Amino acid sequence: MAGQRRTQGARSRAGAAYDLAIVGGGTAGLVAAVIAGELSARVALIERAATGDDCLWTGCVPSKALIASAGLAQRFRTADRLGLEPVEPRIDFSRVMDSVRAAREQIAPHDSPERLRRSGVEVIEAEGRLLGAGVVGAGGRRLAARAVLIATGSRPLLPCIPGLAASSPLTTDTLWEIDELPRRLVVLGGGATGCELAQAFARLGSKVTLVEAQAALLANEEPEAQALVARRLREEGVDVRLDARVTLVESGEVKLEGSRERASGAGAPPADTALPCDRVLAVAGRRPVTEALGLETVGVALDQDGAVRVDRRLRTTARGVYAAGDVIAALPFTHVAAYHARVAVTNALFRVPRSVDYSAVPWVTFTDPEVARVGMSEAQARSRFGSSVDVELQHYAELDRAVVAGEMDGFAKLVSGPRGRLVGATIVAPSAGEAVAELAARIASRGSLAGLAEAVHAYPTFAEGPVRAAEERALRGWKSMPYRALTRSALVALRGFDRALDRGRGSPARTATDSRD
Does the reported pTM lie above 0.85? Predict the structure, then answer.
């Protein structure tokens, strides 16, 4: 790769008009542009559509706004948990969607071209294409740049299912423009987005079926988290189908082959099923946007899934060309794209070697309860560290904050490796996404479970869950035979020392009922 990088684009860029040309105005492109602009670099950002891209317009922002509305509706229904009369809310779906769009519009100025220009960035609203080494074409112009950053993101991937494309399926690109609640909704894909939206639409009144080809939802999460989310979805009326393959979509039906329907269906024989539906929502994956960028012109290689190949410094196979965000094969999260931007700008502008490290990157699935994860799973840790792995599990039914809030469905799972160092954590609870930040910081600083147990946390809070798990590990260590023998001997010696000291002072020996003991 290094040899190829030396052979591509060998001409000097010393006379380039720009220090950095960025193709793509999503999170990675925006963050890179602002950072570089604030550092007085000459920056051009090229974006063919609205800046902000997926996260603002079709991803994080609208989905979390919808989830907030659905969550409030559910709180009305479950008010009896806290001694209030439950109420079935009257839901006007068009007003809910108006609220979602209003949230987007309120946040949009943060990502606007005007804000970028205030940071010294030249924004070019046009298609961007690499024309040669250090040259990008945009809006009929040729821009010469010392470095180029590809940050074009990804788009929804439509599964190759007969009849699906002809059924006008919803995707996360088109979902936010509907105003009528689907009466019967089939969601294809049991990953984070599928689980979030299935729960949200069920809470808003749709009859939802969630179809997943694998044996469990949330394939990358801990088994305990997978099971809890599946159970909660079913309890709220979502028909969860696992091990299911969609064979055909036609005439208002989705036909399945070999699905397991219920929680008890793990041992049941597969069944072929026809699901009646009004709309299909396809959230079974995304594909990097790399078409018509001229990547082949400068020698930028793609992997088998169409993602731009990069090394740990986010350098592509072409000299002076970097890539960041969803266009590369990495964790597909907005905060990771922002992290990529910081790494790429450092390497592209200042040639200071900086590499990406995903070992302490957290992520959150915004179901209710939330599923937050950072670092290794238990299986990954055991594969790497073997018998030196220790696991602690704290159920939130034993947490006072969860009890008083009526939110006892959850747990904190901590995974430690050699010398008790924290290497992974999963939290399933309300506000799990907030609590996981501390654990990510501890993993990044190579902190231990003992250090987490010693930190004082406010009471009563959901953040105590991981601390309780760490405390259990510490107590188990102190109760082990070597420590117990040591502490017993120390206490015996100290009691003898106190008695000798009292005799030397002429004081009567303290009795067993002395309150100071």
Answer: yes
